[in-house]
Specification:
- By secondary structure, the chain is an all-alpha fold.
- It has one domain (43-252): MetI-like fold (Orthogonal Bundle), CATH 1.10.3720.10.
- Helix content is 79%, strand content 0%.
- The protein has helices at residues 8-30, 42-51, 53-85, 89-104, 107-118, 122-146, 150-158, 163-201, 209-218, 222-251.
- Helix 2 (42-51) crosses helix 10, helix 3 (53-85) packs across helix 10 and helix 8 runs antiparallel to helix 10.
- The two termini are 19 Å apart.
- The model has no long low-confidence stretch (mean pLDDT 83).
Length: 263
């Protein structure tokens, strides 16, 4: 089967994977023996993945559920907030500093407060994921809603279209590329946010990958620690891949950035 049937984004990384593994293996060999325990080779990490697959799968499931919940809530909240911000420049000028303040506040500062409010565990993890994901979605969606061709806006208003009709039939379709750009950014942040939530507000009842990494690190189980990192990376690829598929389904038949280019 020809490689041309597949996207270069699929087969190029697969072709480079052996080179990456070999570089990793020989890089470990260059490290002094007394420090090699802190940098396990690919064989040791693979063995840890296989031998602890049930534990890692359960932790990845808990992290994934927290990430999905926070991510979904961020999507809903960002669309509503972007609609509000797109109404007027004065609204944007008034609310933007508060949104920036929320984004610039370190999560490690907010986490203890969130634990007091909603308790440690799943709800805090989902809320931390929400806070990490919502800002890029709001910014990109708002930019899309206000970046509509002025001539088209004048045409709608000349036809006496209501604000809702203008929003639904003109601004929403025009904002889709911006929205999916923000969605791709948030999709990479969602698993990170869930792991950060596990670190700062997780508990043993809903132990995710972040909680596991604390246990592995405290017990000097470095192959398992690297295995947890790879599991979280796989979760991030899954989120991003699903968003890319959604974007192709929504934009692939009409938006220029998704048209196949001649190589």
């Amino acid at each position: 089967m020809s490689l041309r049937r597949f996207s270069p984004g699929v087969w190029l990384p697969l072709l480079l994977a052996p080179l990456f593994v070999l570089t990793w293996h020989f890089g470990v060999m260059l490290v002094s023996a007394d420090r090699r325990v802190f940098l396990p080779g690919p064989g040791a990490v693979l063995e840890a993945l296989v031998s602890h697959r049930a534990e890692l799968a359960s932790a990845a499931l808990h992290t994934g559920l927290g990430a999905v919940t926070g991510f979904a809530c961020a999507i809903v909240a960002s669309v509503l907030c972007a609609c509000l911000l797109s109404l007027s420049r004065w609204v944007r000028l008034g609310l933007s500093p508060y949104l920036m303040m929320l984004q610039l506040t370190p999560i490690v500062v907010l986490a203890p407060v969130l634990v007091i409010w909603v308790g440690a565990g799943f709800r805090s993890v989902a809320l931390i994921t929400f806070l990490i994901c919502v800002f890029p979605l709001i910014v990109n969606t708002t930019q899309g809603l206000i970046s509509v061709d002025r001539n088209l806006v004048d045409l709608f208003r000349l036809a006496r279209a209501s604000r809702w009709q203008e929003l639904r039939r003109l601004r929403f379709p025009a904002a889709l590329p911006y929205f999916f750009t923000g969605l791709r950014i948030a999709a990479t942040l969602a698993p990170i946010g869930a792991v950060v939530g596990d670190f700062t507000a997780g508990d043993s009842a809903s132990a995710g990958l972040g909680f596991l990494t604390i246990i592995y690190s405290a017990n000097y189980r470095y192959p398992e620690l690297f295995a947890a990192v790879l599991a979280n990376a796989a979760l991030g690829f899954l989120f991003t891949g699903l968003v890319v598929l959604m974007a192709r389904r929504a934009l692939g038949h009409w938006h220029e950035s998704y048209h196949r280019q001649d190589q």
